[in-house]
Predict the 3D structure of the following.
Amino acid sequence: MPANTSTKEPIINKEKIAEKNAKGASGNISKENLKANPQTLTASLLVEDAAHAIDMYTHALGAKEIYRMAAPNGKIMHACLMIGNSQFFIADLSPEMGCATPSSMGFYIYTPDVDEAFKKASDAEMKPLYEPKDMFWGDRTGTLVDDFGITWTLATHTRDVSPEEMEKGRQAFFKQAQ
């Protein structure tokens, strides 16, 4: 993983993460952090192999691993990742705890350059579903599927669209799809 040169994002030190996890630390779950980084909705992914998913998302999507906690059996019971300024959780499936994979899930991620991000993700073995193209709502989007069946739509906002243009574009889009 390339060195983090941004002054806005912390450099992730996996040894310190492991040390904190060994001591039972809760990573970034604190009143102070929740006040500084309010996020009303946080997605939580449940997958067959969370360690593989974390590796895929860090390489394919540029996610930063904030922390992870292991269960006694070695499976990941909870991990936190960041993409841009949004965090999400990930864990291994645990049917005995009522944690099973949903039948459908997807994410929509804004990125400065959708074509570059799409290439990076597909080079990291995410499967292209829809190549990047300009959409009627003003975004250029491309969609990929990961090894767990989760769709990731990458988008760059390219132009503002009036409500009238949006409706005209919507009608043309569905007419073309018939």
Remarks:
- The first helix runs from residue 14 to 22.
- The chain is about 30% helix and 30% strand.
- Residues 102-178 form a domain with the Signal recognition particle alu RNA binding heterodimer, srp9/1 fold (CATH 3.30.720.110).
